[in-house]
Write a structure and sequence with these properties.
Blueprint (H helix, E strand, L loop, with lengths): L5 H21 L9 H13 L2 E2 H8 L3 H13 L3 E6 L2 E9 L1 H22 L4 H18 L5 H4 L5
Antiparallel strand pairs: 1-3, 2-3
Helix pairs in contact: 1-5, 3-4
């Protein structure tokens, strides 16, 4: 296999910046409602469902006290429910409310709209080739690639 050329690296670096830009643009819907760290917790809960605060802290690479503060704010704003595990009342559980799920869905839909707008401008064969390449890259990096860096879903 041939090594990656500098032109190929630059293309992937540029694509990374572009995709982060799309992700950040989709987060504009959060202004004034929740912070980015709060939204990261909401994304985690949307993916995993009800989870313990300890599991959330581990997944996001945060201290337990940070998750407690984030959870308290989201509970107060109506985006999250704090509860306890019936088997162990000292374990704090977190889960999204309908309002929390709605906000995650709004941001996700906005992100998909932004991506669709860009992808619709490509020829179908180009779009299919990009999708194949991204799937192959994801398989190479693995789903756990970012866990040690910033948690499973930084944005």
């Amino acid at each position: 296999m041939l090594p990656t050329s500098s032109a190929e690296l630059i293309a992937f670096e540029t694509a990374t910046k572009d995709l982060v830009g799309v992700a950040l643009r989709s987060l504009e819907l959060l202004e004034g409602e929740v912070s980015l760290p709060q939204f990261r917790l909401m994304l985690l809960l949307a993916e995993r469902g009800r989870t313990t605060s300890t599991q959330a802290a581990d997944a996001l690479g945060l201290a337990g006290s940070s998750i407690t503060r984030l959870g308290d704010r989201l509970n107060t704003s109506g985006h999250l429910l704090r509860g306890t595990d019936p088997a162990n009342r000292s374990v704090v559980t977190l889960e999204l409310t309908a309002r929390g799920h709605d906000l995650v869905a709004q941001v996700t839909n906005r992100r998909r709209q932004e991506l669709s707008r860009a992808l619709d401008g490509l020829e179908p064969s180009e779009r299919a080739a990009c999708a194949r390449g991204l799937r192959a890259l994801h398989e190479r990096l693995g789903a756990d690639y970012t866990i040690g860096l910033h948690g499973p879903m930084p944005l």
